[in-house]
Amino acid sequence: MRVAVSETTALRRCVTVVDAEPVALDVLVRAAKLFHFDCQTASSPEEAIMLLECSPTPVVVTDLRMPGLGGVWLVQEIRRRWPHIAVIVVTAGCDEIALVQCMSAGVQHYFLKPIHIDEFHHALQATWYSQLMRRESQRQKQHLESVVTQQSDRLRHTFFSAITSLARTLEARDSYTSGHSLRVRKYALRLATEIGLDDISKKRLSLAAKLHDIGKVGLAEGILNKPTRLSDFEFQLVREHPVIGERILRPIIRNRVVLGAIRNHHERFDGRGYPDGLRGEKIPFLARLITVADCYDALTSSRAYRAALPREEALGILEAGMNTQFDPHLVPPFVRMIRASKVRKRKAAAVLV
Ligand SMILES: [Fe+2]
Ligand SMILES: [Fe+2]
User: Fold this and answer.
1) With contact defined as beta carbons under 8 Å apart, do 213 and 241 qualify?
2) What ligand has the least distance to the C-alpha of 188?
3) Distance 211 CA to ligand 1 centre (A)
4) Which domain holds residue 294?
5) Which of 29, 38, 48, 176 has the most CB atoms around it within 10 Å of its CB?
6) Cα(310)–Cα(340) distance, rounded to whole angstroms?
7) Which residues are in the CB-under-5-Å shell of ion ligand 2?
8) Which of 33-37, 76-80, 112-116, 168-172 is the least confident region?
9) How confident is the model over 22-37, as a mean pLDDT?
10) Same domain for 321 and 276?
């Protein structure tokens, strides 16, 4: 059998030989070296384990009849600790129980002493090549897994890019909501920082906030830009966008936290929101957070049916909606954050003057 150089160099051509009888140990070592194997030796099972801990070899050749814990124990211990190491048993006398125990532990070959050199050579070579094949198939499996992971990442990236441009296109249809998602994401992330949210949650929040209104993609332009009050039917269509958004994203976003934040960003703290009518802390936390940022941006942006509200008036509406529309724990830090940024901007302007 021909094996590529790269494969052979990946695996040490080395064997651990274990035998309590010095003469038998010497015979096995000389036989292994004759076939160009490097050898390390042990005269007891315990010594063999210590040796393998420091320097594991792909193949172990061992006697069964040894003082101490014995050869069967050694075989089982090797199987338990290093299942990839192949074991060849060479022993004097036929102990059927030991034979069964060794075979059930997964021993590759079993020989009776005295060994026949050709038989031993064949067993050693065959075991060595099976180890090489195992290593190679493991390497190929790892390579395939990494290729699949890379491809999946690339696909996900492409999909997210497509979804993000879809969201931009959606907002571009309506001059009043242009940039809404990005502003909601900015406000939501600032609020998250203000309340000390962890980084993983912030990452999920960023994604959910950016895509929270993606479900509006199917809404007619006339509804999005309507300067007058929506009819009940039109309002019903608009109310479906969180569910549609979740449905669009479910095949590629497997994270339930992100999907929940998108689905439930129009719930109200008093349970009178949609689509599920969730109440209080039953509403996913990130959804409650997006709700505050979403409403603030809607209030401070111009709409087809009204002008943008001044900042303080919008903050007043948020404060008035604590416990009814909004989570009462999120409004105060949000208001604090917006007012602080206003003060910072004023100071920066004063420095410029
Ligand atoms: Fe929405
Ligand atoms: Fe929104």
Assistant:
1) yes
2) 2
3) 9
4) 173-352
5) 48
6) 16
7) 213, 294
8) 168-172
9) 92
10) yes
Other beta carbons within 10 Å of 75: 24
Question: Residue type for 284, please?
Answer: P
Ligand nearest to the CA of 241: 1
DSSP 3-state of 60: strand
How large is the C-alpha radius of gyration of the chain? 35
- Does 190 lie in the same domain as 85? no
Among all bound ligands, the one having the nearest atom to the CA of 180 is 2
Is the pLDDT confidence value at 9 over 50? Answer: no
Instruction: Report yes or no on whether pTM surpasses 0.90.
Output: no
Please tell me the distance between residue 196's alpha carbon and the centre of ligand 2 in angstroms.
Answer: 23
How far does the centroid of ligand 1 lie from the alpha carbon of residue 317, in Å? 18
Cα(213) to ligand 1 centroid in Å equals 5
- Identity (one letter) of the amino acid at 347? K
CA of 250 to the centre of ligand 1 (A): 17
The domain spanning residue 13 has which CATH number?
3.40.50.2300
For the stretch 126-138, pLDDT in tens is: 998 888 888 889 8
User: What value does the mean pLDDT of the chain take?
Assistant: 88
Distance 340 CA to ligand 2 centre (A): 24
Among 92-101, 136-145, 318-327, name the most confident range. Answer: 318-327
Residue 155 within a domain: no
Q: Is 36 left (phi over 0), alpha (psi -120 to 50) or beta?
A: left
Task: Tell me the residues surrounding ligand 1 (ion) with CB < 5 Å.
Answer: 213
pLDDT, position 351: 61
